[in-house]
Design brief:
Two copies of one chain form a homodimer. By secondary structure, the first copy, chain A, is α/β, with parallel strands linked by helices. Helices cover 41% and strands 17% of the residues of chain A. Chain A has three domains: 44 residues, no CATH class; 126 residues, 3-Layer(aba) Sandwich (Rossmann fold), CATH 3.40.50.2300; 132 residues, Rossmann fold. Chain A is built from eleven helices and twelve strands. In chain A, strand 6, helix 8 and strand 7 form a beta-alpha-beta unit. In chain A, 53% of the residues are buried. The interface between A and B is large, with 39 and 39 residues.
């Protein structure tokens, strides 16, 4: 098979039997090495036909040729897929990825953001899954070289990359409204998070357009977890399930919800309709196959790497932009007209 | 909430605003620092009531308080869950985890194994997903401080931790045999890998016991991927599907297989029975819910961390042992007697 990726600093380091930062510092002229070591590195550079990565030039202060990726929870397939996409894209560019799982705890997030200041990584792709109390934004604004992806850190001045959550909510609402639903339950993440706010705003816009004020939207806010999906399912049943349709705003929530409904003999879509969000898991094999808004997870990963490399970090922070990636609705069999 | 984990070197480093290795080297007496920096670190140690981690003592040469975890592909939920389990266990012990995704390429595996020699990590949990050509074993034997988990590197002298794959294959075969199946298709990974060999050996043992030589087992070998599952499904259909039951030896294979069978109108279990392996994905929500051998993925992660910390690495390598973790069969609705 043809060699598809460029030789990286890492390859040179491996061939010369030294650390990446030794090679990097030799190239920057900032390190005096024994002649023999120096020769080994220079030989490796020639042998491997290494050229410093042009994409990484703008991140050049640290030149570890390593980017950091901070995610909340790798066991969640959405984040796992995002990580894999970042790894694949970085690999194409000859960059290494250091991956850090925060378990969604702010203390860990702070520690990892500080890696930039210590030059352990040249830049970070940062993904959080909880509202910020201001500390994350402050740190991001101080260090720079951070791309905020998937979920917002509202006061951070950084390039930001999200799915078009509002549009996703709108597509879900429109699909439900077209099937005649006017009484819909929204199951979201924390109320303060933009993913949740925007998905709800889109749902509300669609229902407004369709029902001209006569629609009723109830809301449960919690976490994007299977456990919260189960909790929401129990609450929905306990409240006598007046809504005729549910918009479950993550795969994990949908899985927990379906488990509970099924255990109580509530049929989808005969008794209640369901639209999901993410479409990373094998929803197409579920009984019934679940209609869902599909997030472009792999594109988020690819674009986040590109943004990190292409951003001019010397620009005034006011000019950083928010990029929205398109979502789509994948129609399967979990939506029907309301039960009489 | 109560603080559940011990203060780590990382916490001290964060509080003092220095790198982990600076703290570590100060404690080892190997670094002279400005008096002011030294005082900041010492204050942090007192403030946080830090005690060097007793669990990590045996890994003490590097004392980065960081363990490395090398996995093939994070997008695969089996590996994602394993990673999350290692992260959670390490966190309890006050250790950081550096995670490396190899994309299942040997060049990357080699580079990451070399991190131990460079003291970037104190030890590694190593997970591969392809047969070794001898290079991995050589490197593991040279560096030490590597726990081989999930899949074997046959010539490596290292503590090894696997699911009881043979028992899993046996349970699958026994369940199929009890339903009257005598003609079974095994869809496995690469023929040379122990996961594949042992799952097949268990299946063969069960069929031998039940059918006394009259059973017929056909085999497809490939990769533990959705794509290979689809390929296997197409081949099974093209061959006129003489087997009455399939043992798909990973969740990913089962997903690809079910997709193809469903698209061609082949019903499970009416037309063909199916037993899966892993049970990490939401197989319980599939149509029909899939009977599968469940791997103890979280236990593999926890035990791998424990093995890394508890192994006496000065022992002669001959005394390293292989540990097998128990599997179970989760019976759902994808197995029925053979169609007439």
């Amino acid at each position: 098979m043809a060699r598809e990726r460029a030789t990286s600093l890492k390859d040179v380091a491996a061939a010369a039997g030294v650390s990446i930062s030794t090679v990097s510092r030799l190239l920057n002229g900032s390190l005096d090495l024994p002649a023999e070591t120096k020769k080994r590195i220079e030989d490796a550079i020639l042998d491997l036909n290494y050229h410093p990565n042009p994409h990484a030039r703008r991140l050049s202060r640290g030149r570890s040729d390593t980017i950091g990726l901070v995610v909340p929870d790798i066991a969640n397939p959405f984040f796992a897929t995002l990580v894999a996409a970042v790894e694949a894209e970085a690999d194409k560019l000859g960059l290494a990825v250091s991956l850090y799982a925060t378990l969604n705890r702010q203390g860990r997030e702070v520690a990892y953001l500080q890696l930039i200041e210590r030059n352990h990584v040249d830049g970070l792709i940062f993904v959080t899954n909880h509202p910020d109390n201001g500390q994350l934004a402050e740190l991001i604004n101080r260090t720079g070289k951070v791309v905020v992806a998937d979920e917002d850190v509202p006061d951070a001045n950084a390039p930001k990359l999200f799915s078009d959550n509002e549009r996703g909510g709108y597509l879900a609402g429109k699909h439900l409204a077209e099937h005649g639903h006017r009484n819909v339950l929204f199951i979201g993440g924390a109320e303060a998070m933009i993913s949740s706010r925007r998905r709800l705003a889109g749902l509300e816009r669609a229902m407004r357009e369709a029902a001209d004020g006569s629609a009723n939207i109830s809301k449960y806010h919690g976490e994007y977890t299977i456990e919260f999906g189960r909790e929401a399912g129990r609450r929905f049943l306990a409240e006598g399930r007046p809504p005729t349709a549910i918009f479950a705003s993550s795969d994990e929530i949908a899985i927990g919800l379906i488990e509970v409904l099924r255990a109580q003999g509530v049929s989808i879509p005969e008794d209640v309709s369901l639209v999901g969000f993410d479409d990373v898991g094998p929803l197409h094999l579920f009984a019934p196959p679940v209609t869902a808004i599909r997030q472009p997870v792999r594109s988020i990963g690819q674009r986040a790497v590109a943004l990190l490399l292409e951003t001019n970090w010397q620009e005034s922070p006011g000019s950083f932009r928010e990029t929205l990636l398109p979502v789509e609705i994948v129609v399967r069999k979990s939506v029907a007209p309301p039960a009489r």
